[in-house]
Write a structure and sequence with these properties.
The complex is a heterodimer of chains A (338) and B (162). Chain A is built from nine helices and ten strands. Chain A has helices at residues 3-15, 73-81, 129-145, 165-180, 186-197, 241-248, 260-271, 277-303, 310-333, and strands at 20-29, 36-47, 50-61, 91-95, 105-109, 114-115, 207-209, 218-220, 226-229, 236-238. By secondary structure, chain B is an all-alpha fold. Chain B folds into two domains: 20-66; 68-157, no CATH class. Chain B has helices at 3-6, 23-41, 47-63, 68-86, 92-102, 111-134, 138-157. Classes of the chains: A alpha+beta (338), B mainly alpha (162). The A-B interface holds A 28-31, 182-187, 189-190, 193, 197, 309-311, 313-314, 317-318, 321, 324-325, 328, 331-332, 336-338 and B 44-46, 49-50, 53-54, 56-57, 60, 115, 118-119, 122-123, 125-126, 129-130, 133, 142, 144-145, 147-149, 151-152, 155-156, 158-160.
Chain lengths: 338, 162
Protein backbone atom coordinates (compact mmCIF):
# COMPACT_ATOMS: atom_id res chain seq x y z
CA UNK A 1 0.00 0.00 0.00
CA UNK A 2 1.15 3.53 -0.72
CA UNK A 3 1.38 6.04 2.08
CA UNK A 4 -2.00 7.54 1.24
CA UNK A 5 -3.57 4.09 0.84
CA UNK A 6 -2.28 3.18 4.31
CA UNK A 7 -3.69 6.40 5.73
CA UNK A 8 -7.09 5.72 4.18
CA UNK A 9 -7.02 2.13 5.45
CA UNK A 10 -6.22 3.38 8.95
CA UNK A 11 -9.11 5.80 8.75
CA UNK A 12 -11.54 3.12 7.59
CA UNK A 13 -10.41 0.91 10.47
CA UNK A 14 -11.12 3.80 12.83
CA UNK A 15 -14.61 4.31 11.41
CA UNK A 16 -15.46 0.63 11.02
CA UNK A 17 -14.19 -1.13 14.17
CA UNK A 18 -16.12 -4.24 13.19
CA UNK A 19 -14.18 -4.55 9.90
CA UNK A 20 -11.28 -6.98 9.78
CA UNK A 21 -8.36 -7.10 7.34
CA UNK A 22 -8.97 -3.81 5.60
CA UNK A 23 -6.92 -3.45 2.43
CA UNK A 24 -6.90 -0.27 0.33
CA UNK A 25 -5.33 -0.34 -3.12
CA UNK A 26 -5.58 1.10 -6.64
CA UNK A 27 -5.74 4.60 -5.17
CA UNK A 28 -5.25 7.27 -7.81
CA UNK A 29 -6.16 10.88 -8.22
CA UNK A 30 -8.82 11.66 -10.80
CA UNK A 31 -8.04 14.43 -13.23
CA UNK A 32 -10.59 17.22 -13.47
CA UNK A 33 -12.21 19.57 -11.02
CA UNK A 34 -10.22 21.93 -8.90
CA UNK A 35 -12.59 22.70 -6.08
CA UNK A 36 -11.69 19.51 -4.29
CA UNK A 37 -9.13 16.78 -4.78
CA UNK A 38 -10.82 13.58 -5.94
CA UNK A 39 -9.28 10.11 -5.54
CA UNK A 40 -10.65 6.72 -6.50
CA UNK A 41 -9.70 3.66 -4.52
CA UNK A 42 -10.54 0.02 -3.98
CA UNK A 43 -11.16 -1.33 -0.49
CA UNK A 44 -11.76 -4.84 0.80
CA UNK A 45 -12.49 -6.08 4.30
CA UNK A 46 -14.41 -8.74 6.17
CA UNK A 47 -17.33 -8.26 8.49
CA UNK A 48 -17.78 -11.55 10.27
CA UNK A 49 -17.91 -14.15 7.52
CA UNK A 50 -18.90 -11.63 4.85
CA UNK A 51 -16.26 -10.34 2.46
CA UNK A 52 -16.82 -6.75 1.36
CA UNK A 53 -15.36 -5.39 -1.89
CA UNK A 54 -16.01 -1.72 -2.66
CA UNK A 55 -14.89 0.90 -5.15
CA UNK A 56 -15.03 4.28 -3.47
CA UNK A 57 -14.27 7.95 -3.99
CA UNK A 58 -12.46 10.21 -1.56
CA UNK A 59 -13.11 13.96 -1.86
CA UNK A 60 -10.59 16.07 0.00
CA UNK A 61 -10.51 19.84 0.40
CA UNK A 62 -8.10 21.53 -1.95
CA UNK A 63 -5.58 23.97 -0.48
CA UNK A 64 -7.31 26.66 -2.53
CA UNK A 65 -10.12 25.79 -4.88
CA UNK A 66 -11.96 27.23 -7.83
CA UNK A 67 -14.90 28.01 -5.62
CA UNK A 68 -15.35 28.97 -2.05
CA UNK A 69 -16.86 25.79 -0.69
CA UNK A 70 -18.12 24.96 2.76
CA UNK A 71 -16.34 21.75 3.57
CA UNK A 72 -19.29 19.71 4.77
CA UNK A 73 -21.82 21.15 2.36
CA UNK A 74 -21.52 18.60 -0.44
CA UNK A 75 -21.64 15.68 1.99
CA UNK A 76 -24.73 17.06 3.71
CA UNK A 77 -26.50 17.62 0.40
CA UNK A 78 -25.82 14.07 -0.74
CA UNK A 79 -27.19 12.80 2.55
CA UNK A 80 -30.29 14.95 2.38
CA UNK A 81 -31.11 14.10 -1.24
CA UNK A 82 -30.70 10.34 -0.88
CA UNK A 83 -33.97 8.65 -1.77
CA UNK A 84 -35.35 11.60 -3.71
CA UNK A 85 -35.03 9.89 -7.09
CA UNK A 86 -31.98 11.83 -8.18
CA UNK A 87 -28.92 9.93 -9.42
CA UNK A 88 -26.34 10.76 -6.75
CA UNK A 89 -23.67 8.71 -5.00
CA UNK A 90 -24.19 7.29 -1.55
CA UNK A 91 -21.95 8.88 1.07
CA UNK A 92 -20.41 7.23 4.10
CA UNK A 93 -17.98 9.21 6.20
CA UNK A 94 -17.37 12.93 6.62
CA UNK A 95 -14.13 13.77 8.41
CA UNK A 96 -13.36 17.34 9.44
CA UNK A 97 -10.32 16.50 11.55
CA UNK A 98 -7.20 17.23 9.51
CA UNK A 99 -5.13 14.69 11.44
CA UNK A 100 -6.13 11.85 9.13
CA UNK A 101 -5.39 13.20 5.65
CA UNK A 102 -4.10 16.73 6.30
CA UNK A 103 -7.38 18.30 5.24
CA UNK A 104 -11.10 17.53 5.66
CA UNK A 105 -12.57 14.92 3.34
CA UNK A 106 -15.48 12.60 2.83
CA UNK A 107 -15.91 9.16 1.31
CA UNK A 108 -18.64 8.17 -1.11
CA UNK A 109 -19.56 5.50 -3.64
CA UNK A 110 -17.82 5.42 -6.98
CA UNK A 111 -20.74 5.48 -9.40
CA UNK A 112 -20.63 3.72 -12.77
CA UNK A 113 -20.06 5.73 -15.92
CA UNK A 114 -17.84 8.56 -17.04
CA UNK A 115 -18.11 12.34 -17.41
CA UNK A 116 -18.61 13.92 -20.82
CA UNK A 117 -16.22 16.80 -21.18
CA UNK A 118 -17.82 19.88 -22.73
CA UNK A 119 -14.38 21.03 -23.84
CA UNK A 120 -13.71 18.44 -26.55
CA UNK A 121 -14.55 18.75 -30.23
CA UNK A 122 -15.70 15.13 -30.47
CA UNK A 123 -19.06 13.93 -29.14
CA UNK A 124 -18.59 13.68 -25.36
CA UNK A 125 -21.70 11.52 -25.00
CA UNK A 126 -20.81 8.80 -27.52
CA UNK A 127 -23.95 9.24 -29.61
CA UNK A 128 -26.28 9.47 -26.61
CA UNK A 129 -26.68 13.26 -26.70
CA UNK A 130 -30.45 13.22 -27.11
CA UNK A 131 -31.03 10.75 -24.30
CA UNK A 132 -28.57 12.62 -22.07
CA UNK A 133 -30.26 15.93 -22.86
CA UNK A 134 -33.69 14.58 -21.96
CA UNK A 135 -32.46 13.24 -18.64
CA UNK A 136 -30.39 16.36 -17.97
CA UNK A 137 -33.45 18.60 -18.05
CA UNK A 138 -35.78 16.19 -16.28
CA UNK A 139 -33.36 15.63 -13.40
CA UNK A 140 -32.81 19.37 -13.00
CA UNK A 141 -36.57 19.89 -12.98
CA UNK A 142 -36.93 17.18 -10.33
CA UNK A 143 -34.37 18.96 -8.19
CA UNK A 144 -36.31 22.23 -8.47
CA UNK A 145 -39.50 20.44 -7.44
CA UNK A 146 -38.08 19.14 -4.15
CA UNK A 147 -39.25 20.90 -0.98
CA UNK A 148 -35.89 21.89 0.49
CA UNK A 149 -37.32 22.29 3.97
CA UNK A 150 -38.84 18.83 3.88
CA UNK A 151 -35.44 17.26 3.18
CA UNK A 152 -33.70 19.31 5.85
CA UNK A 153 -31.77 21.64 3.59
CA UNK A 154 -33.01 24.96 4.95
CA UNK A 155 -29.57 25.29 6.51
CA UNK A 156 -28.08 25.83 3.07
CA UNK A 157 -27.08 29.38 2.10
CA UNK A 158 -30.20 31.58 1.66
CA UNK A 159 -32.34 28.85 3.21
CA UNK A 160 -33.84 31.24 5.72
CA UNK A 161 -34.33 34.09 3.26
CA UNK A 162 -37.95 34.80 2.36
CA UNK A 163 -37.09 36.42 -0.99
CA UNK A 164 -34.44 38.42 -2.79
CA UNK A 165 -32.35 35.42 -3.84
CA UNK A 166 -30.93 37.20 -6.87
CA UNK A 167 -29.57 40.00 -4.68
CA UNK A 168 -28.17 37.60 -2.10
CA UNK A 169 -26.30 35.69 -4.79
CA UNK A 170 -25.09 38.81 -6.54
CA UNK A 171 -23.87 40.23 -3.21
CA UNK A 172 -22.06 37.00 -2.48
CA UNK A 173 -20.25 36.85 -5.80
CA UNK A 174 -19.39 40.54 -5.69
CA UNK A 175 -17.86 40.06 -2.23
CA UNK A 176 -15.80 37.11 -3.51
CA UNK A 177 -14.70 39.23 -6.46
CA UNK A 178 -13.68 42.08 -4.14
CA UNK A 179 -11.56 39.64 -2.19
CA UNK A 180 -9.79 38.03 -5.12
CA UNK A 181 -9.55 40.54 -7.93
CA UNK A 182 -5.98 41.67 -8.56
CA UNK A 183 -6.78 43.68 -11.69
CA UNK A 184 -10.22 45.21 -11.65
CA UNK A 185 -12.36 44.28 -14.65
CA UNK A 186 -14.70 47.16 -15.55
CA UNK A 187 -16.81 44.94 -17.81
CA UNK A 188 -17.65 42.60 -14.95
CA UNK A 189 -18.34 45.49 -12.59
CA UNK A 190 -20.52 47.15 -15.22
CA UNK A 191 -22.52 43.97 -15.74
CA UNK A 192 -23.02 43.70 -11.98
CA UNK A 193 -24.42 47.23 -11.90
CA UNK A 194 -26.74 46.40 -14.81
CA UNK A 195 -28.00 43.32 -12.97
CA UNK A 196 -28.79 45.44 -9.90
CA UNK A 197 -30.60 48.10 -11.91
CA UNK A 198 -32.68 45.51 -13.76
CA UNK A 199 -33.65 42.88 -11.17
CA UNK A 200 -35.54 39.75 -12.16
CA UNK A 201 -38.94 38.92 -10.69
CA UNK A 202 -39.04 36.76 -7.58
CA UNK A 203 -39.04 33.04 -8.44
CA UNK A 204 -42.33 31.20 -8.50
CA UNK A 205 -40.76 28.89 -5.93
CA UNK A 206 -37.47 28.95 -4.04
CA UNK A 207 -35.59 25.75 -4.78
CA UNK A 208 -32.43 23.80 -4.20
CA UNK A 209 -29.92 25.22 -6.65
CA UNK A 210 -27.08 22.86 -7.52
CA UNK A 211 -24.85 25.80 -8.37
CA UNK A 212 -22.70 24.08 -11.00
CA UNK A 213 -25.18 21.92 -12.95
CA UNK A 214 -23.71 21.54 -16.41
CA UNK A 215 -22.14 19.26 -18.97
CA UNK A 216 -19.07 17.71 -17.40
CA UNK A 217 -20.46 17.55 -13.88
CA UNK A 218 -22.39 14.31 -14.23
CA UNK A 219 -21.56 10.74 -15.17
CA UNK A 220 -23.25 8.70 -17.88
CA UNK A 221 -23.12 5.01 -18.64
CA UNK A 222 -22.47 3.19 -21.92
CA UNK A 223 -26.19 2.80 -22.52
CA UNK A 224 -26.74 6.56 -22.30
CA UNK A 225 -28.09 6.92 -18.78
CA UNK A 226 -27.04 9.66 -16.39
CA UNK A 227 -25.73 7.72 -13.42
CA UNK A 228 -24.61 10.48 -11.05
CA UNK A 229 -24.96 14.24 -10.65
CA UNK A 230 -21.73 15.42 -9.02
CA UNK A 231 -19.97 18.55 -7.75
CA UNK A 232 -22.52 20.05 -5.37
CA UNK A 233 -20.03 22.34 -3.60
CA UNK A 234 -21.91 25.49 -4.60
CA UNK A 235 -25.37 24.19 -3.71
CA UNK A 236 -27.71 26.72 -2.08
CA UNK A 237 -31.31 27.83 -1.96
CA UNK A 238 -32.45 30.26 -4.60
CA UNK A 239 -34.12 30.84 -7.92
CA UNK A 240 -34.13 27.58 -9.90
CA UNK A 241 -33.55 29.58 -13.09
CA UNK A 242 -29.98 30.06 -11.86
CA UNK A 243 -29.30 26.38 -12.60
CA UNK A 244 -31.24 26.51 -15.87
CA UNK A 245 -29.14 29.43 -17.08
CA UNK A 246 -25.85 27.94 -15.86
CA UNK A 247 -26.25 24.87 -18.04
CA UNK A 248 -27.02 27.03 -21.08
CA UNK A 249 -23.82 29.04 -20.83
CA UNK A 250 -21.93 28.79 -24.15
CA UNK A 251 -18.80 27.60 -22.35
CA UNK A 252 -20.48 24.24 -21.69
CA UNK A 253 -23.86 24.43 -23.46
CA UNK A 254 -26.21 21.49 -23.10
CA UNK A 255 -27.94 22.91 -26.19
CA UNK A 256 -25.06 21.42 -28.16
CA UNK A 257 -26.80 18.09 -27.56
CA UNK A 258 -30.45 18.93 -27.04
CA UNK A 259 -32.64 21.76 -28.43
CA UNK A 260 -33.26 24.66 -26.08
CA UNK A 261 -37.04 24.81 -26.31
CA UNK A 262 -37.47 21.07 -25.84
CA UNK A 263 -35.10 21.14 -22.89
CA UNK A 264 -36.92 24.00 -21.19
CA UNK A 265 -40.25 22.25 -21.79
CA UNK A 266 -38.90 19.11 -20.11
CA UNK A 267 -37.68 21.16 -17.17
CA UNK A 268 -41.06 22.88 -16.84
CA UNK A 269 -42.84 19.54 -16.89
CA UNK A 270 -40.58 18.03 -14.24
CA UNK A 271 -40.46 21.09 -11.97
CA UNK A 272 -44.01 22.31 -12.38
CA UNK A 273 -42.60 25.82 -12.83
CA UNK A 274 -43.17 27.99 -15.90
CA UNK A 275 -40.04 29.68 -17.20
CA UNK A 276 -40.09 33.47 -17.47
CA UNK A 277 -37.84 34.06 -20.48
CA UNK A 278 -36.99 37.63 -19.42
CA UNK A 279 -35.96 36.36 -16.00
CA UNK A 280 -33.92 33.61 -17.65
CA UNK A 281 -32.16 36.28 -19.69
CA UNK A 282 -31.18 38.04 -16.44
CA UNK A 283 -29.80 34.78 -15.07
CA UNK A 284 -27.81 34.19 -18.25
CA UNK A 285 -25.92 37.45 -17.67
CA UNK A 286 -25.59 36.55 -13.98
CA UNK A 287 -24.08 33.22 -15.10
CA UNK A 288 -21.37 34.99 -17.09
CA UNK A 289 -20.64 37.28 -14.12
CA UNK A 290 -20.51 34.39 -11.65
CA UNK A 291 -18.23 32.46 -14.01
CA UNK A 292 -15.90 35.47 -14.22
CA UNK A 293 -15.71 35.59 -10.44
CA UNK A 294 -14.88 31.89 -10.29
CA UNK A 295 -12.12 32.31 -12.88
CA UNK A 296 -10.80 35.31 -10.95
CA UNK A 297 -10.69 33.16 -7.82
CA UNK A 298 -8.85 30.48 -9.79
CA UNK A 299 -6.27 32.98 -11.03
CA UNK A 300 -5.85 34.37 -7.54
CA UNK A 301 -5.39 30.91 -6.04
CA UNK A 302 -2.75 30.05 -8.61
CA UNK A 303 -0.95 33.39 -8.40
CA UNK A 304 -0.77 33.21 -4.62
CA UNK A 305 0.84 29.79 -4.84
CA UNK A 306 -1.90 28.21 -2.73
CA UNK A 307 -2.98 26.00 -5.62
CA UNK A 308 -0.64 25.38 -8.52
CA UNK A 309 -3.06 23.20 -10.49
CA UNK A 310 -2.67 24.12 -14.15
CA UNK A 311 -6.46 24.06 -14.50
CA UNK A 312 -6.52 27.08 -12.21
CA UNK A 313 -4.08 29.05 -14.34
CA UNK A 314 -5.76 28.12 -17.60
CA UNK A 315 -9.19 28.96 -16.17
CA UNK A 316 -7.94 32.34 -15.03
CA UNK A 317 -6.51 33.16 -18.43
CA UNK A 318 -8.69 31.49 -21.02
CA UNK A 319 -12.06 31.03 -19.36
CA UNK A 320 -11.81 34.48 -17.81
CA UNK A 321 -11.41 36.03 -21.24
CA UNK A 322 -14.24 33.89 -22.65
CA UNK A 323 -16.74 35.12 -20.09
CA UNK A 324 -15.66 38.77 -20.14
CA UNK A 325 -16.07 38.65 -23.89
CA UNK A 326 -19.47 37.03 -23.43
CA UNK A 327 -20.49 39.75 -20.96
CA UNK A 328 -19.54 42.40 -23.49
CA UNK A 329 -21.59 40.68 -26.19
CA UNK A 330 -24.57 40.46 -23.84
CA UNK A 331 -24.22 44.10 -22.84
CA UNK A 332 -24.11 45.06 -26.53
CA UNK A 333 -27.43 43.29 -27.10
CA UNK A 334 -28.79 45.27 -24.13
CA UNK A 335 -27.83 48.49 -25.89
CA UNK A 336 -24.87 49.40 -23.69
CA UNK A 337 -22.69 50.33 -26.68
CA UNK A 338 -25.39 52.41 -28.35
CA UNK B 1 31.54 44.03 -39.07
CA UNK B 2 30.34 45.42 -42.38
CA UNK B 3 28.50 48.67 -42.94
CA UNK B 4 25.51 46.59 -44.03
CA UNK B 5 25.47 44.86 -40.66
CA UNK B 6 25.24 48.22 -38.86
CA UNK B 7 22.55 49.77 -41.04
CA UNK B 8 19.38 50.98 -39.28
CA UNK B 9 17.30 48.65 -41.46
CA UNK B 10 19.08 45.57 -40.16
CA UNK B 11 18.36 46.69 -36.60
CA UNK B 12 14.60 46.85 -37.11
CA UNK B 13 12.57 44.13 -35.34
CA UNK B 14 11.49 42.43 -38.55
CA UNK B 15 15.12 41.86 -39.45
CA UNK B 16 16.02 40.41 -36.06
CA UNK B 17 17.80 37.15 -36.59
CA UNK B 18 15.57 34.10 -36.15
CA UNK B 19 18.46 32.76 -34.12
CA UNK B 20 17.84 35.31 -31.37
CA UNK B 21 17.05 33.43 -28.18
CA UNK B 22 14.41 35.88 -26.98
CA UNK B 23 12.23 35.20 -23.94
CA UNK B 24 9.25 34.17 -26.06
CA UNK B 25 11.47 31.99 -28.24
CA UNK B 26 12.82 30.17 -25.18
CA UNK B 27 9.34 29.75 -23.72
CA UNK B 28 8.08 28.29 -26.99
CA UNK B 29 10.95 25.82 -26.90
CA UNK B 30 10.04 24.80 -23.37
CA UNK B 31 6.40 24.46 -24.33
CA UNK B 32 7.20 22.22 -27.28
CA UNK B 33 9.48 20.01 -25.18
CA UNK B 34 6.87 19.71 -22.45
CA UNK B 35 4.07 18.96 -24.92
CA UNK B 36 5.91 16.65 -27.31
CA UNK B 37 8.46 14.87 -25.14
CA UNK B 38 7.64 15.09 -21.46
CA UNK B 39 3.83 14.80 -21.40
CA UNK B 40 3.67 11.68 -23.64
CA UNK B 41 6.29 9.99 -21.45
CA UNK B 42 4.27 10.42 -18.26
CA UNK B 43 2.14 7.42 -17.38
CA UNK B 44 0.35 8.85 -14.35
CA UNK B 45 -3.26 9.52 -15.48
CA UNK B 46 -3.40 12.68 -13.37
CA UNK B 47 0.03 14.16 -14.04
CA UNK B 48 0.04 13.54 -17.80
CA UNK B 49 -2.90 15.85 -18.65
CA UNK B 50 -1.54 18.40 -16.19
CA UNK B 51 1.70 18.43 -18.15
CA UNK B 52 -0.23 19.05 -21.37
CA UNK B 53 -2.14 21.89 -19.70
CA UNK B 54 1.16 23.30 -18.47
CA UNK B 55 2.37 23.39 -22.06
CA UNK B 56 -0.78 25.25 -23.10
CA UNK B 57 -0.30 27.85 -20.37
CA UNK B 58 3.33 28.22 -21.37
CA UNK B 59 2.35 28.79 -25.01
CA UNK B 60 -0.18 31.48 -24.07
CA UNK B 61 2.45 33.18 -21.90
CA UNK B 62 5.06 32.94 -24.66
CA UNK B 63 2.67 34.57 -27.11
CA UNK B 64 2.02 37.47 -24.75
CA UNK B 65 5.61 38.40 -23.97
CA UNK B 66 6.73 40.44 -26.93
CA UNK B 67 4.09 43.18 -26.90
CA UNK B 68 3.18 43.03 -23.21
CA UNK B 69 4.53 46.52 -22.42
CA UNK B 70 3.17 48.07 -25.61
CA UNK B 71 -0.32 46.67 -24.97
CA UNK B 72 -0.40 48.11 -21.46
CA UNK B 73 1.01 51.49 -22.43
CA UNK B 74 -1.62 51.84 -25.18
CA UNK B 75 -4.42 50.68 -22.91
CA UNK B 76 -3.43 53.10 -20.16
CA UNK B 77 -3.32 55.96 -22.68
CA UNK B 78 -6.78 55.06 -23.97
CA UNK B 79 -8.22 54.97 -20.46
CA UNK B 80 -6.58 58.32 -19.59
CA UNK B 81 -8.20 59.89 -22.66
CA UNK B 82 -11.65 58.69 -21.55
CA UNK B 83 -11.03 59.84 -17.97
CA UNK B 84 -10.19 63.30 -19.32
CA UNK B 85 -13.50 63.37 -21.19
CA UNK B 86 -15.33 62.18 -18.11
CA UNK B 87 -13.91 64.84 -15.78
CA UNK B 88 -16.29 67.68 -16.80
CA UNK B 89 -19.29 65.34 -16.43
CA UNK B 90 -18.41 64.25 -12.91
CA UNK B 91 -19.16 65.91 -9.56
CA UNK B 92 -16.71 68.64 -8.66
CA UNK B 93 -15.60 66.62 -5.63
CA UNK B 94 -13.89 64.05 -7.85
CA UNK B 95 -13.42 65.89 -11.14
CA UNK B 96 -9.96 67.12 -10.17
CA UNK B 97 -8.79 63.57 -9.60
CA UNK B 98 -9.84 62.73 -13.13
CA UNK B 99 -8.08 65.76 -14.62
CA UNK B 100 -4.92 64.64 -12.84
CA UNK B 101 -5.28 61.06 -14.02
CA UNK B 102 -5.87 62.18 -17.59
CA UNK B 103 -2.56 64.02 -17.67
CA UNK B 104 -0.60 61.41 -15.71
CA UNK B 105 2.08 59.20 -17.24
CA UNK B 106 3.13 55.62 -16.75
CA UNK B 107 5.65 55.64 -13.91
CA UNK B 108 7.81 52.98 -15.55
CA UNK B 109 7.91 50.26 -18.18
CA UNK B 110 8.17 47.17 -16.01
CA UNK B 111 5.07 45.04 -16.52
CA UNK B 112 4.38 45.08 -12.78
CA UNK B 113 4.48 48.89 -12.76
CA UNK B 114 2.30 49.17 -15.86
CA UNK B 115 -0.18 46.70 -14.35
CA UNK B 116 -0.37 48.67 -11.12
CA UNK B 117 -0.99 51.86 -13.07
CA UNK B 118 -3.54 50.03 -15.24
CA UNK B 119 -5.40 48.92 -12.13
CA UNK B 120 -5.37 52.47 -10.74
CA UNK B 121 -6.81 53.87 -13.97
CA UNK B 122 -9.38 51.08 -14.25
CA UNK B 123 -10.66 51.79 -10.75
CA UNK B 124 -11.21 55.39 -11.76
CA UNK B 125 -12.92 54.21 -14.94
CA UNK B 126 -15.31 51.98 -12.99
CA UNK B 127 -16.21 54.83 -10.65
CA UNK B 128 -16.72 57.25 -13.54
CA UNK B 129 -18.92 54.83 -15.44
CA UNK B 130 -21.08 54.20 -12.38
CA UNK B 131 -21.60 57.94 -12.02
CA UNK B 132 -22.31 58.40 -15.74
CA UNK B 133 -24.92 55.63 -15.66
CA UNK B 134 -26.82 57.56 -13.03
CA UNK B 135 -26.42 60.81 -14.91
CA UNK B 136 -28.96 62.44 -17.12
CA UNK B 137 -28.22 63.85 -20.53
CA UNK B 138 -26.85 62.81 -23.87
CA UNK B 139 -23.23 63.59 -23.02
CA UNK B 140 -23.16 61.21 -20.07
CA UNK B 141 -24.95 58.52 -22.05
CA UNK B 142 -22.63 58.89 -25.04
CA UNK B 143 -19.52 58.66 -22.89
CA UNK B 144 -20.92 55.64 -21.05
CA UNK B 145 -21.38 53.94 -24.42
CA UNK B 146 -17.86 54.85 -25.46
CA UNK B 147 -16.52 53.30 -22.25
CA UNK B 148 -18.28 50.06 -23.11
CA UNK B 149 -16.80 50.23 -26.61
CA UNK B 150 -13.36 50.77 -25.11
CA UNK B 151 -13.86 47.71 -22.91
CA UNK B 152 -14.61 45.67 -26.03
CA UNK B 153 -11.38 46.87 -27.61
CA UNK B 154 -9.37 46.17 -24.46
CA UNK B 155 -10.75 42.64 -24.16
CA UNK B 156 -10.08 41.89 -27.81
CA UNK B 157 -6.47 43.03 -27.52
CA UNK B 158 -5.95 41.04 -24.33
CA UNK B 159 -7.43 37.83 -25.75
CA UNK B 160 -5.15 34.87 -24.97
CA UNK B 161 -3.20 33.90 -28.07
CA UNK B 162 -3.12 30.16 -28.44
Amino acid sequence: MSSLEAQVAAYLAHRMPEAVGIVVDELGRIYGGSSQETFRFHATWKEGEISIDRRLILRRDATAGLVVAERDLEYNVYRALAGQGLPIPGVYFLELDAKWLDRPFFIMDMCPGKPGSPFVLTDPYDGHGTAIGEQYWSILGMLAAIDYKAVGLESLRNGAAPSGYWALELDRWEAILDENEALIEPAVRGAMRWLRRNPPPEPAKASIVHGDYRSGNFLFTEDGNISAILDWEMCHIGDPLEDVAWGLDPFWPITRHYPLDEGLARWEAASGIAIDRAALDWWLLFTAVKACVIWTTAASGFASGKNREMTMALSGIRAGHFHRDLILKMMRTRGAMG
Amino acid sequence: MTDKGMSPKSLSPENLSPGNLSIDNALHGLEEFLRDRIAPAIEDPYVSPMARLSAMVLRICANSVDDAAELRVEENAAIRAILGEAAPLLPASIAGQYHDAATSRDPGLKISILDAENHRLRVLLVTAQAVLEDGIGPAAKALDQRIWQLLETVEAKRAPRD
